[in-house]
Amino acid sequence: MAAPRASLRLVAPVWNRGTSGIRGLSKAVDPEGSQRKGRTLLQFLTDHFYDVEAVREYLLRKQVLKVQKKNRSFTYIEERYGPYVAGAYFVLKQGGAVKFRDREWMRANEQGLSSLEFRKLQEVPVEAVDASGCAINYQGLDNLLALKELQSLSLQRCPHVDDWCLGRLYHLADSLQELSLAGCPRISERGLACLHHLQNLRRLDISDLPSVSNPGLTQILVEEMLPHCEVLGADWAQGLKVGPEEQSPDAAGSPIPA
Amino acid sequence: MLRRALRLRLGQCLSGRGLGTYRGGSTLDCDGKVSKIKKKIQSIFPGRAWSPLYDTSHLPPERSDVVIVGGGVLGLSVAYWLKRLEKQQGAIQVLVVERDHTYARASTVLSVGGIRQQFSLPENVQLSLFSAEFLRNINEYLAVVDDPPLDLQFNPSGYLLLASEEGAAIMERNVKIQRQEGAKVCLMSPEQLQKKFPWINTEGVALASYGLENEGWFDPWCLLQGLRRKLQSMGVLFCQGEVTRFISSSSHMETASGEQVTLKRIHEVHVKMDHSQEFQPVECALVVNAAGAWSGQIAELAGIGTGPPGTMQGTKLPVEPRKRYVYLWHCPQGPGLEAPLVADPSGAYFRREGLGNNYLGSCSPTEEEEPDPGNLEVDYDFFQEKVWPRLAQRVPAFETLKVRSAWAGYYDYNTFDQNGVVGPHPLVINMYFATGFSGHGLQQAPAVGRAVAEMMLEGHFQTINLSPFLFGRFYFGEKAQEHCIL
């Protein structure tokens, strides 16, 4: 089957647009739909022919299955080599990087992952995981949560990490000291609320989260929630405008007497 | 040819007006006539509802395999799973009859929207666990091509149930059952509780159970709209009308032990339209009673409970509407972002709403204080006398709060044991129940929908065994009592 043309837009829906309002979701009250004057040929065909709709549903389902396949758990490796190696193998297969204790950062190279190295690392705990941009989802997080001595976790720009996943991070509360969630499109302030379990956290990066409704206020609330943690992210003054007294100092005048 | 016909009719219309009548308004009248003619011609085309006498496009179809009475989250969930579990695509025609498409009094949209696994019955825990998994993967279950993904606004903050000395042993037993079923719940002593949530006053608290995963609250309106959208794409028909009558036939049978039993079968459902006496008799094979707080009335229409008391025929469906209030207040020094949904041993509960120090909460009244369910008016005195003192005692910061607004909704309260009724009625053999969940229907709706669909299609429960929730227990007196009701 030939690859679809880019203009036909067979890609799964964009995740960022989901928060534009709950009531705009039903077909009858869809603000985006009514503004879209020129509907593409594909959408016209989908509305009028069941076959086209079935094919598109199948392609959508295939994309979802692809992500699920990437996040399956490697039970054989876990039984054979232990949880640390299984977790490291999972991260490396997804395209991330792993750092074992007292070793350098490891990344999957062109030849793939050789199993010789892993046999030596069965008892060595994993200290840091860099899973930036990987397609980790709720199921795949099982592999990471088994790494009981993980100190630093970077989930930057992961497209499938959402609030439900953050609700599971309490498993790593004893050891996790550094967490980065910058750029994840599906994380909102509701997921950040469950980070209060991570009392050993010292550095948290929550910059550039498009689904957070109020970044400045969220930063303040997260700082209050985790008093020992340094929270990097939105500048709390970013949503504020310069007040009238500063704009025109001449027009301020004297304060009105009480 | 169509346009010529329209122009001809327009011409006739203009010249047909007599002298001195409606000179100014004739153009408006003709536009209306034109659109009516257009509609009539369009209805002749294949695929439209055509009736030679008058326009019937607003009426439900004349026959449907399954009629679901009630378009709330439970009814839509049953419809979804029926279409999903059918053997062949398009095999089952489903019609959902909803009296009010604005859902102004529906329990679904007026609900606080919480989901928890902290129940005392293992079946309830299993139902909630599956429903949490459904909500987590909602964009895989309810995906529609070309439509944006759903954002349920789920807060994974968990539930914190507090227990006094008397309730501590029961809570420990419940947590053991919940853990056996796979829920992630942790028990906390008062000292641990004070350390974790310093804004709680732990006086009188002996034990606390805190749900760590799959618990929190979400937006029920979004779930409802997502289900509607998906059902429309799967070919389920929706109708706005009220069920006023069931036409059924009876047959007398004899059981193995020689008793006489009268079995009833519903053949037609009369659906009455809004603001008119017009009704449509819909022939059906199966009827699902998912009418929420009004399920008792629907059951009476089907003849359930008309018979000598003490017999199966005389056993009514013990579901009635009970009014519950929800108050929204603002408290500037209140609990922060980490606050879960806290439930006091006295029955008062609250949760955070949004980022602006707003909180939602309420308390379930005792049997003596039950408000009149005739209307949805809010009683603010109830907050002053019953809710606020209990909340202020538990969270001292709530002594300075200001109520912003409040609303009231109905629980479809099961007066027998406060748990749902699912499955067929023993005597009215083609009526299935999916109602009576007394305040935890929303959080169990996806799983209950699947169970009822399995019962309807296969004849028995396949994934979760809900036999303790069948109708027969009202006659045999076997209570499936749920102790953790909020």
UniProtKB/TrEMBL annotation, chain A:
The highest taxon in the source lineage is Eukaryota
Q: What is this protein called?
A: Uncharacterized protein
Query: Which organism's genome codes for this protein?
Result: Ovis ammon polii x Ovis aries
Q: Print the organism lineage.
A: Eukaryota, Metazoa, Chordata, Craniata, Vertebrata
Automatic annotation (TrEMBL), chain B:
Question: What is the membrane topology here?
Answer: Single-pass membrane protein
Residue ranges crossing the lipid bilayer per the database entry? none
The molecule here is called: FAD-dependent oxidoreductase domain-containing protein 1
GO MF term set? oxidoreductase activity
Q: Name one GO biological process term.
A: mitochondrial respiratory chain complex I assembly
Q: Which GO terms describe its cellular component?
A: mitochondrial inner membrane
Q: Where is the FAD dependent oxidoreductase domain?
A: 65-455
What cofactor does this chain's UniProt record say it requires?
Answer: FAD
Summary of subunit composition and partner proteins: Associates with components of the mitochondrial respiratory chain complex I.
Annotated PANTHER family: FAD-DEPENDENT OXIDOREDUCTASE DOMAIN-CONTAINING PROTEIN 1 (PTHR13847:SF287), SARCOSINE DEHYDROGENASE-RELATED (PTHR13847)
Provide the function of this protein: Required for the assembly of the mitochondrial membrane respiratory chain NADH dehydrogenase (Complex I). Involved in mid-late stages of complex I assembly.
Q: Which UniProt keywords apply?
A: Electron transport, FAD, Flavoprotein, Membrane, Mitochondrion, Mitochondrion inner membrane, Oxidoreductase, Respiratory chain, Transmembrane, Transmembrane helix, Transport
Protein's cellular compartments: Mitochondrion inner membrane
